[in-house]
Write a structure and sequence with these properties.
It contains 12 helices and 11 strands. With 398 residues, the chain is of the alpha+beta class. It has 3 domains: 2-38 and 275-397, no CATH class; 42-193 and 229-273, no CATH class; 194-228, no CATH class. Strands 3, 4, 5, 6, 7, 8 and 9 form a 7-stranded mixed sheet that branches. It has a 4-stranded antiparallel sheet with strand order 2-10-1-11. The radius of gyration is 31 Å and the shape is elongated.
Length: 398
């Protein structure tokens, strides 16, 4: 302790440097956990027993899927099914005011789902079937703010916290019909081109007439024979006591859909959407652990070398080897403890400012704490070996 008091500034600076290094290791674990949480967040909050998607696709998150909304009625007639609701989602980027806003729009099946399960921090759930949205606070939208999307404007009536997509974009919840209109919005020029295409296809057919041509030229006219905008999936909840496996097997016999359980949907997200990110973060963590071990070893070894004359004097005065071992080991453990403490402080104050969510739990703190203990113990061993090789007569040589 006397030695540390003489060099408390340099020792504290060294501990702070190690704290920054340990904080990065801690951040990598928190980023991965946040990545997993964001990827499975919608699956957990929507609470569907079975996800019905387009045949032979892994939608609606890992792959694009489109199903007709009329599929809801077919599913409701299936044995064991209590409810079926449409689900649509996609990531869009719009210019709002002077900034570019990237968000993931999620459609709620009105009126069964008004966002009651969403963790609101302010505002209310949806009350009207049109022109109301619930947005995540990460988007920077204020309660009551008007959000222009497509040809409509929407009022932000509720704010959530921590509702992010697997890509880290804030979620915006609207009714299912509004979501489909937003996601399938076309610019006026694109609509004009589409109308001209309809007129060209109409020409030369038995349906070609002045009245039909006038209708197709009308911007407000939508041909009744065209199917409504498709949904991305249908969410199915089962009756109490119904077997998920039996209902899933029955749906697999349908030629136009594929059915996934909620757990299978999570696996598709974790093994598909975030798999490469998980491997990359794991590689960074391994490299950081190796670098941390090298840095700690060099620091403790150099600190031992700096005390060469002190250790030689202790040995000359008759100090046992255990005293020298404790000197180096206690110094290494104290350095590791201070570095770990700095890492926790950095995590508390700086991690909430990260653009991606960093989730830290007991597992992350305990894992990094054990890593620090192992690293400083092994690094101290290198210093101990150097200290034990210092001859007592070295002090007599000056």
């Amino acid at each position: 302790m006397k030695d540390l008091r003489r060099q408390k500034v340099s020792f504290s600076a060294t501990a702070l440097g190690l704290g920054l290094l340990f904080a990065i290791v801690l951040a990598m674990g928190g980023i991965y956990r946040g990545l997993v949480e964001d990827a499975t967040l919608l699956v957990d909050h929507l609470g569907a027993d079975i996800w019905v998607v387009q045949r032979d696709t892994r939608g609606p998150f890992a792959e694009r899927s489109t199903v007709p909304p009329a599929l809801e009625d077919r599913l409701r007639a299936q044995a064991g099914v209590a409810s079926a609701r449409s689900f649509s989602t996609a990531t869009i980027q719009r210019i709002v005011g002077a900034r570019s806003l990237r968000m993931t729009v999620v459609g709620l099946s009105w009126p069964e789902d008004k966002g009651q399960a969403l963790p609101l921090v302010s505002g209310r759930h949806l009350r009207d079937p049109h022109r109301e949205v619930i947005a995540d606070r990460s988007l920077g939208l204020a309660l009551g703010e008007i959000l222009p999307l497509g040809d409509e404007t929407f009022r932000v009536v509720g704010l959530t916290q921590g509702m992010l997509s697997s890509g880290g974009d804030g979620l915006v919840f609207s009714t299912e019909l509004d979501a489909r209109a937003i996601l399938n919005w076309q610019a006026p020029e694109a609509k004009r081109v589409e109308r001209e295409g309809r007129l060209a296809r109409l020409a030369g057919t038995e349906l070609d007439s002045i009245s039909n041509q006038d209708r197709l030229r009308d911007e407000r006219f939508s041909p009744p024979t065209l199917a409504p905008f498709p949904a991305n999936a249908i969410l199915v909840n089962l009756r109490p006591g119904a077997s998920i496996e039996e209902v899933q097997r029955g749906l697999e016999a349908w030629p136009d859909v594929t059915a996934y359980t909620a757990q299978e949907q999570r696996d598709l997200l974790l093994k598909g959407v975030v798999e490469k990110s998980r491997k990359q973060i794991g590689l960074f963590r391994a490299l950081l652990a190796i670098v941390s071990g090298i840095v700690v070893t060099l620091i403790l070894y150099n600190m031992t070398v700096a005390k060469t004359h002190d250790i030689a004097l202790l040995k000359l005065l008759g100090a046992r080897s255990s005293v020298v071992v404790k000197l180096v080991l206690n110094q290494g453990l104290l350095l590791g403890a201070l570095g770990y403490g700095f890492a926790i402080l950095i995590a508390k104050f700086l991690f909430p400012l990260f653009p991606r969510r960093v989730l830290l739990g007991p597992g992350e703190y305990l894992g990094v704490g054990m890593l620090v203990l192992i690293l400083v113990t092994l690094a101290s061993a290198a210093g101990i070996v150097r200290a034990l090789r210092i001859p007592p007569t070295l002090i007599l040589a000056g």
